[in-house]
Fold:
Amino acid sequence: MVVPGGTAVTRLSAWWFAPAPAERLAALRIAIGAYALIYTLSRFHALITTYTGSFAAVGVVRTMVPSSLAIVLVIATVVLLALFTLGWQYWLTAPLAAAALLWTLTYRNAWGQVFHVENLLVLHVIALAAAPAADAWAASRQREPKGSYGWAIKLLVALTVATYVLAGVAKLRLSGGAWLDGHQLRNQIAIDNARKLLLGESPARLALPLLEHPAWFTAVSIATLCVELGAPLALIGGRVGRVWALAAWLFHVGVYALMHIVFPYPLFGVAFLPLLQLERWFRPFAGMRAWRRPV
Structure:
């Protein structure tokens, strides 16, 4: 019996579940886990500060908790992220770390402005927690690598792609074709820098001279949409994926240069690591027995 579309499904399955080295997924666990740990530690004081203001339920956070419990959960998040990065008892610590990170960052947002710069980081940690990312280079005993790791890496790429596509679609839904003429982008940059001046902050030095040239923003607006709506090209992988990653990274550099707005996860390049053969960077550690002890 021939199943309609069976050939396409078979090809898609073969592509999605293509083998990849266990070390590549492990390297992503270490890199992304270390970033999540450092990011949480960098915000530690803000996260444990007694919350004030209006509470508004958002995401997985539906109610307030005692301040002491919130502080304990932040500390637990730091500890769990460290164990996640090391790959210690990963079957248990990874899901707990992902859940703790999701709750901790969401709870902070429930007390103020909701930031979306952390969304992709949390999604990547959740995806890694659901994957066999500690089959190599882990601090505790793990199973013999099976070779079925490509799907998890593609999932990380797909999550990155989705965030950029959604941003591009949002621009078109809010502005339509008007986004392409550059006026809205120019106005947005002008307003942002004017607000900084009114609040006594330093404006972006590059923005002020460029605002005198409206035509330049037309090219930037078009390029922005090309990067965001062209994100699915990253799923091709290889050189195409790396070229897109470079374009996306330059986009974030431009955002910082023109508005001093930082999207740290992609700006530091961590969001694009799934597109690289990251295990090559970790080869100096490949001989450490403690990192490669199969059951």
